Sequence to fold (498 residues):
Amino acid sequence: MYSVRMRAAQGGAHEVGGHHISGAERIVSQEMVVQTTNDMLKRAFSHTRGQADFINIVVEKIDEDKMEEVPLLSVHTVLGNDVTAGHRAALKSLTQAGVTVRAAQSGMAALLSLTDSMGGAMLLCAVTGRRLDDTGLRGVRVSRMDIGDEQGFTAMLGDKDINNTHVREALVLASKVAAAPGMVAELCWSDDPEYTTGYVASSAGYIRIPHCKSLGSLLGGRVFFVKPDADMDMVEDYLRHQSVLVRMT
Amino acid sequence: MYSVRMRAAQGGAHEVGGHHISGAERIVSQEMVVQTTNDMLKRAFSHTRGQADFINIVVEKIDEDKMEEVPLLSVHTVLGNDVTAGHRAALKSLTQAGVTVRAAQSGMAALLSLTDSMGGAMLLCAVTGRRLDDTGLRGVRVSRMDIGDEQGFTAMLGDKDINNTHVREALVLASKVAAAPGMVAELCWSDDPEYTTGYVASSAGYIRIPHCKSLGSLLGGRVFFVKPDADMDMVEDYLRHQSVLVRMT
Fold:
């Protein structure tokens, strides 16, 4: 199996200050590498956030003995008619998952104060809300994961009428993240201006929250809340490097 | 136009000690990016040096105002029946291009003492033969170049019966290198075990030299001989970053 991952930016590479446009992560057989790469290129060239002028694609063989399986999170959707309701639901879901009110507010504030898309995630202490990683504006990118049973996944999402790229990718990512050592919960809304539904995820489930931001906003990102005593090197290494196949339960 | 470049390694990425398998450089229109990427992936998976398990592809828009044109070097082939004759011809061609005997011998010795393929080139002083770059076993990679008139190039090489991937790529690279500030000459033979013809190139021309190594040898590389007073930052920046289209003359 091969990890195929893409990151795209505008105004040069991410490392030299380019503006993040899109990213993608797959784990596929060698026969699917070319097709997967083509799909990623097309996406980078036609993203709602703009056309990329820098695209990096890495294809890397995965040692199948070292691949982990984690369960797919169960999906729930809460109701709400506006951003105020969305943010209230996000705070409530975070505290129910074990994040303190203070840390949850701090995470919301961190996402709301973004001035550009980060590409990766901010890691905050689930008790104090203090930022724990030192990756600045780039964030920690979660890499090397995919769904194990693609057909079953598509069927399940189709039944719930949520089979779109955003949900597919976020649910796989959130399932990997929720299984990280010391992870408490995740808060996310997209940087895609056409997609305003966010989510809170934890090992208890993936809660979809409509209206986490206004339509047209290019600002979104991810916050991971981790236990105060978590080994940060271990958490970041897992998020970045551990190959994970998400298992339908 | 887009620079599309690929590097492939075995045993992990180059940065973590992976063994270099292959590299490729093109400058193409956006319509050709997907096809070019596919060709590079196929090549990385089926190289005579082995199958890559790490492939990095970068697609980057080029500012056409900053693109330079350089002339295609004229091609000559010397005769010779064995490696001894090949090495003698290489030394002679280098000294005729302005490299001292001492520096030419030093460059030959550097290539002959390689224990793995470098991917990039070593930069030596054309007078003393001392290594001037500090890139160690990776070398300086020449990037962002292509032929301007692909059909004319194919026709010209076909007429000479040397229209193969090795010559195509080496001649474009050598034409860029020969136009670098402070460059005196280049010595190269391939790390492809099935290709033993090497070359010496300078602004005076590209001299093909049969039998620079034994058939089956995986060891080859590039040495660039530069003037003692060359500004090394400028030379390396040109080799790595200057976009160059090679013009048929």
User: Anything to note?
Assistant: The mean pLDDT of chain A is 95. The radius of gyration of chain A is 17 Å. The CA atoms of residues 87 and 248 of chain A lie 29 Å apart.
